[in-house]
Every structure is written in C-alpha cells, then in structure tokens.
Design brief:
The structure is a homodimer.
Chain A: E1 2-8, E2 12-21, H1 27-40, E3 45-46, E4 56-61, H2 70-90, E5 98-106, H3 109-121, H4 123-130, H5 136-144, E6 157-160, E7 163-167, E8 170-171, H6 179-185, E9 188-194, E10 200-207, H7 211-218
Parallel strand pairs in A: 2-4, 3-10, 5-9
Antiparallel strand pairs in A: 1-2, 5-10, 6-7, 6-9, 7-8
Helix pairs in contact in A: 1-2, 3-5
C-alpha cells in the first residue's frame, strides 16, 4: 500500500507506504533491508522538492510462511517499491508526465544521484517536458548548477528516450522530429545522461510542472 | 544597469548587471568590494532555483572623480545592488509578488542563509504566497527540510509582515484577518523567521510561482 502527493493538513504532500509479508525474517534484517530498498525507490522520487514532515515507509512480517530466500525477497521488495514510487510520482499534483532520469558513467553513485536529482528537480526541465520540448540546454544547465568541476561537457551525452540530442560538446541537431513525437506521446519521458567519467549509475523519478500544480497549491482556499 | 529573468537561447534565465563609476578605486580593492556586495544582493535572489551559465556582475571605474570614502561608497553600492536585485526578482517570469525572507536569531550567517533560501525556494511557499495564504505550515516544512537538527520548533517564530502566525510551538490563531488582507494587498510580502538560537541574520528575495511561469516556460514553442 502507498499513498502520496495529496493535500493534507498542514498542506504538505505526505507519503505513506505500508508493506506486509508472511515471510519469516528477523526484525533487524528486515529493517536494514528496508533501508536499502527505500534508498533505491522512495528516496529517489520528487514531486516538487518539498519534503513532508511525516513521510513513512514501514514493513511488517508475521513469519507465518517460514524462512525465505532473502536475496530473492529483497529483489522482489525493491521491484515492488520502485513500482509504487513511480505510481506516486505519476499521481503527483497536476502531473501529466512521469520523468525518469538515468545518470550513468558517473565516478560514483553519489555523483550520479546528485546530477539526476538536479535534473529531475529543475523547474525549467519540468516545464520543458510539460511543453514536450527535448530541451538539452536546460538539462545541461541543471548538471552545471551542481558546481561539480569534475564534469566535462565534451564527454556528456544527453538523450530523450532513444534520441540522443547532445554529444561531443554539441547538439546533434535532431531536436525536432522524431524526438518531438516521442516527447508528445510518451506518458513516461526518460532522460538519459552519460557523463563519460566512470561506471556508476543512478535513476530517479519526478513529474512535469504544470498549471494544475499551481492551481492546486495556490488557489486551494477559493 | 541590470537585466534579468528573460528567456534567451538556450532557454535559461540569465542575469547581467554592469556598474560604472568615476570614483578612483584601485582594481583589487574594487573587485573584493564587489564580491562582498554581490554576496549581499544578487547572490540572494532566486526566481526558480535554476542557475544560468552566464550570470555576470561587473563594475568599471575610470577614476575621473578622484579618491572616495570607501566605506560610504561600498554602502551606496550595496544599497544600489540590493535595489537592482529586488527589481530583477519583481520582474521574474510570471511573478506577481516579491517575497522577502528575513531569518534572524540564527547561530551564524550560513545557517540563516540556508534557512532563508529553503523558504524562498519552496514551491509550496511560493504558491501559498501567490494564493495570498499566510501558510506557516509550509514555512515550517521548508525550515525542517534543511535537516538542521539545531532547530528547536518551540523557539521558532514566524511572521507575515507584522503579523505573527506561529510562536512557542503553536499557531497564534490569527491566520485569517488581518493577515489575509496584508497577503492580498502587498506587492512585497515579507516572511520573518526568528530562530531563537543566536544573533546572526540573513535576507533573501524571491517571487511567487504562478500559472504564467508555467506558460512562459512550457508553452514557448506554441
């Protein structure tokens, strides 16, 4: 179960997620597993950068089914949590498109995550996606505003879906068709960024920024 | 002269500011003075959290007027720069209200600045101001999401204009009138936050987040 992105008192978007299993997993093991899973799923979504005071993910196991293969269990739990996280984002206030940002070829996972979050949280990237524009300039700006001097623009490659729009320090010139049809039709827009620096990777999820988000959050008293 | 918040290729909001004086001030002195001034003015404004690659502030002195009182000069330059920074914010894309966030009683200036920026950049605070709602819950959320554990909610005081809406760990109950008239009528909304921890202070400026911001940045190609 997961519930998110709605308006509750005192007007914050709150995320609640509860999991139950009949697997027999010791409490400590389950807790550390849940932390790893949350770090790969719920902690990688962002509706509007604002953080609720009451976000909660909890898991309960009654042990009825006996011991289980922990590796397989964690894999299934991760997949379920990512699926749930993406549903929360797609259901975000005013959202019309889910945005998946995949940063790869980073020096380490932290760098990949910081870059991916900067892109998915940029209001200019979010509005560009809303306007179905494969705007590589805004993606490059969002990478640049992290002030990570290890970035090399000549090595960065930016793609929307399967369409590479920027590589080797310059736009590829295919900004219009067919990437435009992709941007217009996709309910889930994937922005892939290869940094060309290493082998680490991180994926985060967000949504577009729309007039309905403003209506919901500015005009809720009228 | 200062120019900002417009759309230029590649679709970033770019800020340019050029200053000229006939005072005779050595180049090194003028440069370090400008850095101090910019840190108190232009570096404290935010339209939408996105950072342009080409923001520029420059000052040129031809020396014609001879030596000047440096303290008085810096004071005048700071006032001019703050005035210009506020004009840029008020002219931000889609903006209808300027937001001034003053954080005082902080442990140090860095803490005050981080808190103030978190509030002024929060989409939920920005939309609340657009909707003329003195929403202390969203301000408290923005303070909380800095994860600064030195904060003590019991000591925090939040005011909109002269109207204190939260203190001693609870809302004061005057959320409606007269603070509502203030929020509706003010072109410049001041949010004051006293942390109750020390004596440091910081002021930043931003603007509300409106449907016009979305229109300008999502539908620019249609």
């Amino acid at each position: 179960m997961a519930k998110g992105a709605g308006m509750i008192e005192p007007n914050m978007a709150t995320m609640l997620s509860f999991w139950v299993t009949d697997a027999d997993i010791p409490s400590e093991e389950l807790q550390s597993m849940l932390k790893r899973v949350v770090d790969k799923s719920f902690n990688r979504l962002s509706i509007d950068t604002d953080t609720s005071t009451s976000d909660t993910v909890a898991i309960m196991a009654n042990g009825l089914a006996g011991p289980v293969d922990l590796v397989a269990f964690e894999k299934a739990l991760t997949e379920g949590a990512i699926d749930m996280a993406k549903q929360i984002v797609a259901d975000g206030e005013g959202a019309t498109k889910l945005i998946e940002v995949v940063v790869s070829e980073a020096i380490d996972e932290e760098q990949a995550k910081v870059m991916a979050k900067s892109v998915v949280n940029s209001p200019l990237v979010k509005t560009a996606v809303h306007g179905a524009d494969a705007n590589w300039g805004r993606v490059a700006m969002a990478l640049g505003k992290t002030f990570d001097t290890r970035l090399n623009p000549e090595k960065v490659k930016i793609s929307f879906g399967e369409h590479t729009v920027y590589e080797e320090g310059a736009p590829t010139g295919i900004e219009d068709e067919p990437v435009e049809s992709y941007m217009k039709q996709a309910d889930e827009v994937t922005i892939s960024i290869q940094l060309g620096l290493g082998t680490a990777e991180s994926t985060v999820w967000g949504c577009d920024l729309t007039e309905d988000y403003i209506k919901i959050n500015a005009l809720y008293r009228t």
